[in-house]
Amino acid sequence: MMVDLFKVDTPRRAVLAAIAAFAAMPVLAATPLKVVATTGMIADMVRQIGGEAVVVRGLMGAGIDPHSYRQTRSDIVAMTRADVTFWHGLYLEAQMEEFLADLDRKRSVYAVADNLDPAQLITHADYDDSFDPHVWMDPVIWAQCTSIVVDELTNLYPEMRTLFEENASTFVQEAVALDAYSRDTLMKVPPKSRILLTAHDAFGYFGKAYNFDVLGIQGISTESEAGLNRISELVDILVDRKVPAVFVETSVSDRNVRALIEGAAAQGHDVSIGGTLFSDAMGVDGTYEGTWLGMIDHNVTTIARALGADVTARGRLGKLAGAA
Ligand SMILES: [Zn+2]
């Protein structure tokens, strides 16, 4: 028997509408996309954009160095079963490249930094055709990486296009606000103190965006060891420019930074540790610093305060646990 909805009486039509609405809802809750992301920063971005339509597994937690990270057995299982895997690219995950290239032949695998305009990338000092991968340090560049995430999630789940696009738009707006806060806050550092010395060269994009001289003891990968010459060259710069503070990183040993401080002290210049920065990994899951917005807020606020700016330790949104 044909059911003519237009002849159904009002209560039945209401019931049908309720059933239709009920049927529509669990589609979202019951079948979220399974997504794997290599770094915490990418996992955070995909969670913000995907909302309830995704379940994200981030492979690298707090304190993990992506330059040396190698996939574990459970990572391999997760990536093989995922609807899509997002990685960074630009040779950040140096030890995973081969595995990811192989996986790419069978599964959906995308590098979020792939579509960035090379004109805004920093070239590698040693190799002509490779770039500094640390683009999450510039909110304006990082916001552009949302486009690949939106495109690929939409390919897999076209019904959720509007959700993905709206969430990405919110993410971009937050990135713009974070960039403005960073600019204002770092402008309060006296010009002669705008020098950032850290364990490895993760802050090139930060320096370019906010007019800081940036010096890393190790290069843009932690895989190359710093030589004694590099250490003594940096000690001379610290002493000459009377740099008040240097910084350690959560994902890199502080051994070299301590050697610098000792070297400067031997020449009669006291340098302090200005704080611990989140370079290639975010803070602990479930904290504000464990999000990309919180990570950058922490870095900017910590750097500004250690180098002489009079700004609150609570950061842009008043959420920081307390920058040093
Ligand atoms: Zn790095």
Q: Brief overview, please?
A:
The protein has 324 residues and is α/β, with parallel strands linked by helices.
> Order of strands across the biggest sheet?
2-1-3-4
Hey, roughly how much beta strand do the residues contain? 5-15%
The average pLDDT is: 91
Could you tell me the radius of gyration in angstroms? 23 Å
How many strand segments? 8
Ligand roster: zinc ion
Q: Could you state the CATH homologous superfamily of the largest domain?
A: Nitrogenase molybdenum iron protein domain
Structural class: alpha/beta
Q: What is the overall silhouette? A: globular
CATH architecture of the largest domain: 3-Layer(aba) Sandwich
Q: Largest sheet, described in full?
A: 4 strands, parallel
- The oligomeric status of these chains comes to single chain
The N- to C-terminal Cα distance equals 74 Å
SS field, number of helical segments: 11
| Total domains | 2
The secondary-structure element order is HEHEHEHEHHHEHEHEHEH
